[in-house]
Amino acid sequence: MGNADFMNGESTHRAAVPPPQPFLKSLQNAVKETLFPDDPLRQFKNQPPGRKLILGLQYLFPILEWGPRYSLDFFKSDLVSGITIASLAIPQGISYAKLANLPPILGLYSSFVPPLVYAIMGSSRDLAVGTVAVASLLTASMLGREVNAAENPALYLHLAFTATFFAGIFEAALGIVRLGFIVDFLSHATIVGFMAGAATVVCLQQLKAILGLDHFTHETDVVSVMRSVFSQTHQWRWESAVLGGCFLFYLLLARYFSKRKPWLFWISAMAPLTTVILGSLLVFLTHAEKHGVEVIGHLKKGLNPPSIMDLAFGSPFLSTAIKTGIVTGVIALAEGIAVGRSFAMFKNYHIDGNKEMIAFGMMNIVGSCTSCYLTTGPFSRSAVNFNAGCKTAVSNIVMAFAVMLTLLFLTPLFHYTPIVVLASIIIAAMLGLIDYEAAIHLWKVDKFDFFVCMSAYVGVVFGSVEIGLVIAVALSLLRVLLFIARPRTLALGNIPDTNIYRNVDQYPDTRNVPGLLILQIDAPIYFANSSYLRERLSRWIDEEEDKLKSSGDSNLQFLILDMSAVGNVDTSGISMLQEVKKNIDRRGLKLALANPGAEVMKKLNKAKFIEAIGQEWIFLTVGEAVGACNSWLHTYKPKPATDETEKWSNNV
Amino acid sequence: MGNADFMNGESTHRAAVPPPQPFLKSLQNAVKETLFPDDPLRQFKNQPPGRKLILGLQYLFPILEWGPRYSLDFFKSDLVSGITIASLAIPQGISYAKLANLPPILGLYSSFVPPLVYAIMGSSRDLAVGTVAVASLLTASMLGREVNAAENPALYLHLAFTATFFAGIFEAALGIVRLGFIVDFLSHATIVGFMAGAATVVCLQQLKAILGLDHFTHETDVVSVMRSVFSQTHQWRWESAVLGGCFLFYLLLARYFSKRKPWLFWISAMAPLTTVILGSLLVFLTHAEKHGVEVIGHLKKGLNPPSIMDLAFGSPFLSTAIKTGIVTGVIALAEGIAVGRSFAMFKNYHIDGNKEMIAFGMMNIVGSCTSCYLTTGPFSRSAVNFNAGCKTAVSNIVMAFAVMLTLLFLTPLFHYTPIVVLASIIIAAMLGLIDYEAAIHLWKVDKFDFFVCMSAYVGVVFGSVEIGLVIAVALSLLRVLLFIARPRTLALGNIPDTNIYRNVDQYPDTRNVPGLLILQIDAPIYFANSSYLRERLSRWIDEEEDKLKSSGDSNLQFLILDMSAVGNVDTSGISMLQEVKKNIDRRGLKLALANPGAEVMKKLNKAKFIEAIGQEWIFLTVGEAVGACNSWLHTYKPKPATDETEKWSNNV
């Protein structure tokens, strides 16, 4: 691949400018890749209109697609898993509604209507719909800041419905305008830290029920909670604490066994319902409700009442409701989408994130009109569903019917259920969300991710849920911006006996090429980094010249920029390159580029930079660039050729 | 480079995991590259303590470095250029102070103290210090929203000093904590659009003076201004308009000539002063001030009075002052740094952005205590300075002395200067800021940059200066985030008769390798794009399999990911790769990686992904990966080998 004559143009290959595209076509491509990367209309291509209508309906309502293929075998599996998740959904629903400072019955309502909507519109086969602890807590803390749930329960309730409505609108809107990727800006590290922090906060809140306290702080941070708990030690109720401790131990034991033996999953799944039954029986038999053990009390019989007239669009607190809706909606969406995706990957089917968002949105809009509050696909419930062998979303329908029967006939049974049992159920569920192994993994693999994770955790636990979230998202974004603002420039050296050039830090046995400085730029060149790159490149040249001077080697003659990793360049980036060119011309060096990509070549061509640098100084590979530079040195600079240079120009 | 035996490990090269670094050392490196990319302490290395002190002082006060080498020849040049810029500074200073709704004399004060501070602390040799139109307008619009300058001039004045003080504090702080790169987030395109918009708005504001109107809107958008102008056509004063038109014509003519012949720069530089003298004489002789031509009136004699006691830290409008200070400070900084850098590049010396920020900051802090408002390095004045042949910052000192003499003795001469002359000077200066050629260049080279530029322009002209700025910065950031969120994945093909693989769109004569899909990922793999990449890679595989199926070719056997352009990966990215691996395992394909960089290899190693994929499936180049895949197909899958496959495994 060496070329003895300089620039004979036969054995070297030229970096190509891609064929020009009309502006509208490239705009269309860009929009398609940005908003429709999954090409959702692919299946509609070349279909007759009737078929298109059916496909369109199936696209909106996936039940039309899998429904006709539904079999009795599937139903058997879905029946078992549906009943299993119902037994989890009832106590969890009541607990989380308490966490949101809402009437407990709302937890049951929310496990009836939304699962039916999701069964029709959702595309996951494993997701079990229900309320989640974090969104419940967030609702309580964001709405509670404006309206006291104890003093003004009706207004608080209406604002909760309104927030759910706007959460649904926002979720559906994100899906419709295909901006689902906003959810991606919650990184894995953020979610690990945030979830663990929220779980800690939720557990701390349960101290009220466990210790049987009447008064409790409205703050969620650990300092306020601890101060509140230890300022009223004389109020602690040992009966409540013992009961709570026992049930918590039982729940954790059940989880421990079902984790060890996955086929025992039902022990863990049924455990909450059995604790509720045992706890209620105990209270009923011992009349413990008269000895400081608080119980749920009366639950209204009957199905969800309509709540569409309760949406408080005219309320002075509307903006709070909207804000609460958007924040909780995004959090719920992130959890639901992540859960759906994980199980889809296990079973190897595909989930369309934007379509899921529309399903979640519709489920919450309908829910807000039927006395439900925010629902999504919680991890715990979906995992139980998956383990119980669910086949389709019919398990959600089965769960909804089980909850319906409960609402119609069984609510009186929950009268004696002690609150402390619900607290144990919440704590047991929350402890599973503190994923310290994931945090250790983050520390091992990526220190910055660990830092983001811990910031989210500390922010949630010592500040508030929102503060933790804002800190974590800001840090994640800062990281992305820092990556763009501070790209790395790497010196490349030759891997012995090849024509390959690689980073000298990664491959310590590479050799420098005398007279040449080969740098790789590791990011697109944008306004945000062009000043930095200009300074950094000039510092590279300075340092290289200093080094050569002190070692008495030959002068620096060429700067070769490997552009392989430069995905794009904007006008600021081009100006930077032009300035670098001027600068190194002034120093008496020459500039060569290796392997600029399609976008970069296109723009360099339009900006006439290719003419400025000379088409013959743009190469397809670093190896060819080095070969040409050495030939040039050999041909045009007849200076006392050291053995090194001789060897090099022959070698390449 | 082909290997006939599969994986003999002799002729292929392995991608290396870089040698491990202790955590603290890599943290130190990261901090250094992020905050100290220019290595400012390099010159202090290996120096005795006394020398270090001197170097340190010289670092803070560059005058100590160049002062001792100052010569009489230099002084001659600096004297000429200093007097030239003073002749521009006096009328411009008065005009811009009027634009900021401040007493005209402040424009002169601001050309006296700050240039002296900059001469001591600044490192640019060509920058001429002074007030700028855009920052003046912003001050007027941001402060004017809270306090009416006409009704409460003292409070307005004090808030302007306070804003200047905070601008200085903010600028210096950015430099001290080395966050100067924040300025880089104002892209070239943003600045072009923003400056043109601000210039348009400033010109529109001059219609008040040109038409001799008494009442004028406080809004800056084009709609309000036009409504204000055309609602009072009966108030227009033809005397004022004619005078303004003539002087504007003269100024533009002077600029036209000095642009055509650079050695005539002094015509343009002196033009403002001559218009002021001519205008004042004209008014003085014709008593036009009594016929509707407004004049400056009385200007107080004497040097800057101290204003340190006027800083309104206790004012209820403090937050407005701080906000105004930060916004105008950043804008001023961006202009000053850009101007300093441009001229430094012309003369091939180096400017340290962070050091310049400290100098600008100190200049404004001192200025705010001596009755000056916000100053920076305006482009027009610095260009005149440069053209007049300045050698060092002494030209600023000369200008300051000229302004001092004016303040002490010549202020009465400005009594009869007509306001309309100042308006013409502003308009002439502003028309030079509308850089339509740059906008055309943006359109040609980068449509998105053009879009950002036009958004900034439209935002400023139809909304307000702040709206335009926010829109433009948000769009620029969105672009960076979109780049990260939607990286391109490119299919690679073989360039005939080589071992090189390149993008098939850019090099249309590349050939596909049967059974292999080679993709290049064009960005670091982060949380923000990992979901997208997972979907996109799976779509690539789907499409490739569809294509192969419809053409009846051999099945897809390998996915080779070219990681050359993947600068980094975080834990979300690693999870994505693990999922892709699982996914393609399930489809019966194999995954190979080519050329992962140092950071990527390090993290993949820590996450044990290298073990999962097999060290032998990570290659140094795409060519070697293809070679190994073909050998593997040949060795382990004895299927009816088509001629194609035969040829390929021989070829590579």
UniProtKB/TrEMBL annotation, chains A, B:
Where in or outside the cell?
Membrane
Transferase is among the record's keywords: no
SUPFAM superfamilies recorded: SpoIIaa-like
Q: Where is the STAS domain?
A: 506-629
The answer on whether this UniProt entry bears the keyword Transmembrane reads yes
- Principal location class: membrane
The alphabetical list of record keywords is:
Membrane, Transmembrane, Transmembrane helix
Q: Which NCBIfam families match?
A: sulP (TIGR00815)
| Record-given protein name | Sulfate transporter 3.1-like
Q: Which organism was this protein described from?
A: Coffea arabica (Arabian coffee)
Name the gene for this chain. Answer: LOC113733249
